[in-house]
Design goal:
The structure is a homotetramer of 348-residue chains.
Chain A: H1 13-22, H2 34-46, E1 53-57, H3 60-71, E2 76-81, H4 85-88, H5 93-98, E3 101-105, H6 114-123, E4 133-140, H7 151-163, E5 168-172, H8 175-182, E6 197-201, E7 211-215, H9 221-230, H10 239-249, H11 253-272, E8 279-280, E9 288-294, H12 295-303, E10 309-310, E11 323-329, H13 336-347
Parallel strand pairs in A: 2-3, 2-4, 4-5, 5-6
Antiparallel strand pairs in A: 1-7, 6-7, 8-9, 9-11, 10-11
Helix pairs in contact in A: 1-10, 2-10, 3-9, 6-7, 8-11, 11-13
Cofactor (chains A, B, C, D): pyridoxal 5'-phosphate
Protein name (chains A, B, C, D): L-threonine aldolase
Keywords (chains A, B, C, D): Pyridoxal phosphate
Chain lengths: 348, 348, 348, 348
């Protein structure tokens, strides 16, 4: 009953195996090894983007910050959702790397609308040197609320961006969960929908710690590499990073793990709808659920062995009837039995 | 015959085993798991520093940059060797994180002398707000030239620093190699010698990618943690970083691997002294050798299957008799037979 | 009929005279001259703050950015009004100097309420290292909308800040206009109301280009001085900056010029209330008026020789009946006849 | 007898007059006024560069930092003299604005040689992402030692730079003093000699506080303007900055003041050669002299009313016979009688 985050479960055995297999003999460091080139090409294949620059880092914060820095000038502002991870959960890393600022676009169910985006872009009107200049757009798929942009919705946002000469970054920490939910290809959910760069997550979906930075314009590759080194994000024993990505992509493991996580989440959602005094707050489309129930019910669930975040209050302290919001995240390793146990626990 | 770097060999099986053992069940992310606390305590034990702050990162550049940033104000200058890794090999990462500059102290055999350090500190004389203010000292043990500071030499440098109210960082990417060469304890080579923070390397000595940042003044811990997150260097699945450190320190593996690397280097050095037209350039004290021999000899060695850096010229192009410098680095995995094969190759 | 900004008019003759008087003989540079010390003491007298650190810079953006940088850590967020100059009009200078980010507090009539501030501070809840940490509060007096915080309102905001251990900066680009409107002392409108640092403006109120940075905690003085030099904001021929401040404060010129500017603005407001199809949008309390009238009326006024900003549209292009907002700012030099001429022009 | 610096004397009356004349009526702020455009064009005329971007700032540190930032990427290193002002006297402002580092080229008599420059550039060899990349060259004319690069010497340095694809910045805080000494034109000492950007100083040569940033490639203009605003260096009442430059350039005042300063310095040098126990240390070519004499002689001169820096020791404390170095700087306002009085004082 561990729903704290999709970074809390074990690494998939295939990824461990790939690391173990990579652990033989000698290889040049810093990504100049053959395994890394193989992994890069595999990502290019996945994205149907043979010319894309592909580089690996250990986590999503560095992927986002480095990609955005490569797309942004220090006097610009980055447009993103008001609930975006880059705004709320990265301790100013995007500002550190880009030296720019963020303009927050209001969201509905975790998603920006084209209208809200346009309004915000227009509000950063052209006042010469006085205000920040318009920088890139950053979209998160799956959103922080567990909802998903349809391909049309992504395209509508990138169309607005393009109208103003603005490029688009996709924070894809849960790229796979979104992709299998939409049943589309990686290309469709990225460059075919107008996206210029992607933080392609592996860590939350079965890897140990690897994200691919995918840049469809290869002219930006060298700047990205310099920024990565300068940020201290180039690994010396790089092959172990690449091995993870190989294990993650081989035999479509990444799709399998994402489907498993989403399926467990759907099972959870189905079970929750019956629970008295419990409201699911957003459409459940991937592997995240937000739900409200009384403090006393949270307390009982947590005391009963469930693990998840209570977002807006202390489950142990306060009015027992007060409605508090909990967040459940499923990863590939959660079992159907686990989910059922949790639902049973809620039913008391 | 792979002497390119000590980051080119495989991860020690014990470290892999530790990762595999850590890969079970659920654990909170971002270092809040019990394995991480165990690993922190193990490092504290190694340094006989029960109150020290200990945090893990994936590589030496981030360890150095984050520790220095925690010790330095943006208007200061950091004193370091003119051959220091933080100056020559980190693509401005220290400047990026500290926002400060570096003052280069001339070296002899890769080592700063107390006199040279004092001269440089005095040269950054107190001219009010005009020049940079004096920031911390950074010492590298083992040095970039493969030489080692004795405990007295470290103490003499930190004494000079202390005289000016300056704190000291130790870049210990090869801490273990230095320690076993000196036959001293980690405490003796750090805080007992006046060092305030240590980048305690694991990656070059058998780990996959982990360094411990050791801060003897725990009051700096929180700032360090915030800087690490802001730099994108806090891993979500943190337990796998900690597991590496556990495997690395358990049963004194780190000392064993360092002794193995140093022993192979000593074997190399012994073999090289006989080779005609070959000069070893610095005292061989740890696991690095710089040596000069004619271009034609380099070419023959490299064509014969050896792998190492030729530092100052193209081995394939130029006067065959010109003396070029090569660098050999041994890691724990190099075998005595490998070394002998290389020496035989040089003898022709 | 020049109402474009209070930086568009001439320098007051007394300030010019002070510069001319300072222009004799030799003086050490960089603020080590006696005139500068006299000017610093005069500011300390004005603020009844004998121990305050007082330093001069040439404009408001640098004053704000340097003061905020001295109060903020790079991993923090600064709380300010959503219409604040530091957010909208300084091209990321605050972010550049502080390396931090801004959290925008919603405003009513240009003013934050204590409730809105508290809500925003609470929203930047303590989530460990993940989100930005809480940094200082920045209040603007006179606000961007021409409204004024009462002393009680300032105190209510700083009280909320203090409750969370947060310090307060006052952007006083129009400090004098606010002060004469409130009829209070500089001390009452700053440290007695809980303010820790002030950007004390001179430029918009008769000086050529000088702002005093007032820091009530003198322990921050040295850091401020280093940041000022590092930002390139320390003038070599510093006495001419100090002379301006002397001329500005001598014989209460600063109060006289502020009263003149506010009086002309009041005269404007009185005249505008009669103009058909014209609505004044905020309380007119200092020297700024926002007003709406049809595009055709703006066009006629501007064609007739008036100069002011039309904030949200092109006066020459669009539906003649559309209501557009104009901004009028009066400085000390505007004459009553000028104002009357403009009102007559509007009346057609 | 005031030789402390050329920023210690009064502003030339013509410059004050120009300010006073500018002080009438209303003008748009931030450089959008006609006076500013006139001043820009005057600088373009002086440099025979009708397309150059020309912008004004208040001091040399900001001019240098902003120009270098416009020419440099954060992962690069700037080549400059080991005695350069940007290295020693700007409290990390160049590092703050560029985010890059400086590579110090050894100097002889304050001047880099092409050989030394080439050696340093080669030392920053191409090692992929590991080291900093090669950034621009910065030359100082007049040098910190009071010596002057001939046009051929400047050309030789920029030729080396160009060979490596490197652009050149000229720190011309004392541009006029160098120019009149060489008897050449501004074009000859800049773009005709391979220079790409110039910090064209006014402050040290009779202005109050103005430097022109001259960028021969106008494509960089917009970035420069954004960086200036973001650095807080765009003045609102900009016309007073422009007026200074107008007064400075009108009727060749700038040449006249530079000739006066240089002439007084030559007079000083001529007088010093006779003084017993006094050695002039560098060729006296502009308006700066370094000289050595015993501590007791310094003490007597300073006690006798002379003002100048003693560079390397306390004139009041130490062995009376120890040779200490003094620095004399003449500005336009120093009189021949002043100089004679000082020489008489030295002769005792």
């Amino acid at each position: 009953m561990y729903f704290l985050s999709d970074n809390a479960g074990p690494v998939h055995p295939n990824v461990i195996d790939a690391i173990v297999q990579a652990n033989a003999g000698y290889a040049p460091g810093y990504g100049d090894d053959p395994l890394t080139e193989t992994a890069r090409n595999l990502v290019r294949d996945v994205f149907e983007a043979p010319d894309a620059a592909v580089e690996f880092v250990v986590n999503g914060t560095s992927a986002n910050a480095l990609l955005l820095a490569t797309m942004t000038q220090p006097w610009e502002t980055i447009f993103c959702a008001d609930v975006a991870h880059i705004h709320k959960d990265e301790c100013n890393a995007p500002e550190f790397y880009t030296q720019a600022k963020l303009s927050l676009v209001p969201t509905v169910n975790g998603k920006m609308t084209p209208e809200a985006l346009r309004t915000k872009i227009l509000a950063e009107q052209n006042r010469g040197v006085h205000g920040p200049q318009r920088g890139p757009l950053s979209i998160t798929q799956v959103t922080e609320k567990g909802t998903i942009y349809s391909l049309d919705e992504i395209r509508a946002l990138t169309d607005v961006a393009r109208e103003f000469g603005i490029k688009t970054h996709l924070d894809g920490a849960r790229f796979a969960n979104g992709l299998v939910a939409l049943g589309c290809s990686a290309a469709e959910m990225s460059w075919k929908a107008g996206v210029d760069t992607v933080s392609f997550g592996g860590t939350k979906n079965g890897a140990m710690g690897v994200e691919a930075c995918v840049i469809f314009d290869p002219d930006l590759a060298w700047e990205f590499e310099l920024r990565r080194k300068r940020g201290g994000h180039l690994l010396s024993k790089h092959r172990y990073l690449s091995a993870q990505m190989l294990g993650y992509l081989a035999d479509d493991l990444w799709l399998e793990t994402a489907r498993a996580a989403n399926a467990r989440c759907a099972q959870l959602a189905a079970g929750l709808y019956d629970v008295p005094d419990l409201t699911v707050q957003f459409a459940v489309q991937a592997n995240i659920i937000f739900f409200a129930m009384p403090r006393r019910a949270h307390k009982r669930a947590l005391d009963g062995g469930a693990a998840y975040y209570v977002v807006n209050g202390d489950p142990d302290d306060g009015d027992p009837a007060e409605m508090l919001t909990g967040r459940l995240v499923t990863d590939w390793s959660i079992t159907a039995a686990d989910v059922q146990q949790f639902i049973d626990l809620l039913h008391g």
